[in-house]
Amino acid sequence: MAPSAVRAAVKIGDIEVLAVRDGVGTEVAVDILSVGPFDDGKYRGGRLLDSLVEAGVSPGDVTDVVFTHLHFDHIGWASVDDKPMFPRATCRAHRADWEHFVSGEHADPAAVAELTPLADGDRLELFDGDFTLAPGIDALHLPGHTPGTTVYVVSVAGRRVLLGDVAHSLVQFSERDWQVIWDVDPAAASAVRNRIADEAADTDDLLVAAHFRDMRLACRLTPEGYQGSDAVSEPG
Asked: Phi then psi for 153, rounded to 5 degrees?
């Protein structure tokens, strides 16, 4: 059965996570954005639980968590107090990102602290390539921003392409040679953005990214450029 709806674009502080319901009891949290229950004046999180409840989703309802990548501002709710935030959920990350950020020689200590409880609690599943999470929810490995960056395509009443940090600004779809300092492999990341732009051009695909304006803007690409849209979510 295909997903019944993109359940909600849930506000977490200034950032969003998408919750997807498939109609047969699966609740998927795509990209646990934000830095978690944390506020240092520069980065602010802390409202995930309230926001999920407002959308009709509790942490115990979530069956699957999928990461687009493992930068600190996309994993902040993976665990709290050294325990997985979503007790029933299988959390999935690409193996290349896990090795880069968690288990490798130059691992990020913040990622190690945040994500190790998933492995210790047997809540972690690593993948190596493209896969279908559930009918209508497909994962595409598109390295560049990070070695394991994965885009999720939700197909229901059209397509929503959840980019994570493949693009940080709409202008990157028109300035094809621009690169950003956060990309691990800038040339590969630029090629991925251009591929997505070419494939989505003049279609009804909605491109959704974590850092687009106001943290909730999606866009469609046309021959004349991009068209902004706030139509990220549908009624559940």
From this structure: -110, 120
